[in-house]
What we know:
Elements: H1 3-10, E1 17-22, E2 26-28, E3 32-40, E4 46-61, E5 64-76, E6 81-83, E7 88-96, E8 105-106, E9 113-114, E10 117-125, E11 131-136, E12 138-140, H2 143-154, E13 157-166, E14 177-185, E15 194-203, E16 207-216, H3 223-228, E17 233-241, H4 242-247, H5 249-264
Parallel strand pairs: 2-12
Antiparallel strand pairs: 1-3, 3-7, 4-5, 4-6, 4-10, 8-9, 10-11, 13-14, 14-15, 15-16, 16-17
Amino acid sequence: MSIFKKVIASVGIGSAKVDTKVKNHYITQGEVLEGVVEITGGATEQKIESINLRLMTLYGHEGSDRLTNTVVYSHKVNEPFIISKGERKEIEFSFRVPLDTPMTMKHPRTGQNVPPVWIDTDVDIKNAVDLKDKDYISVEPTETHENIIDAIKIIGFKFRQMENQEAPVYIKTSKPYVQQFEFLPSFGKYIKKLDELEVYILEGEEETTVYFEVDKKSKGTFASIQEKFNLDEHRGYVTFNNKEIINNRRHVSDRFEQIIDSALGFRL
């Protein structure tokens, strides 16, 4: 290799190109994501040290507009290899998307996924600028997630929004974020008693823990003080067996109703 070509490679000009292609841009939490990484050699022979796929999302912070990128899962694709000038190489990959991957929804105005979930392809090439490739995917909820959301709707709530938030200190999770689901009372006995219900679903292989915040409607002279110091909130969690959630949604609804009634001081 000439000195000129070595210099070209060292600054990343004419270096290898990388393109990650997934078989399906729609996937359900817990399913296996498959695809292929295509590498095309550039103007010079180069050593590919490693190719890593990172399943990414971002989350917000309470009381701030700041957003933080975070890794949901990381998958190493290859061991080091040499890519020749102009050579084309394909490496297949597959990995299981974690159950705590945030589910996504299409924003009604922009058509983009909220929250965004994507695959970052990070390529480490010796003596060259690292390459980046980003591929967005849509994530569908598991049947467990769907049944929990439906169980809450049944007892008088409508879904308002969902977002990734920095994990509150009382939620036990290894991730720096949790996905928050917000519900508003839409009919029945909770309309004039609640402002909103916030739910966090942490699904495991056998059991699912649902953390919640019941935001009671403040009244009277001390309403603003109650809201300021969160005295109108009731927090807790409940754990269900996944088979129970799928096969007996009515039980899940009844359990949530008991919890909310207790928080509001209703007679059980």
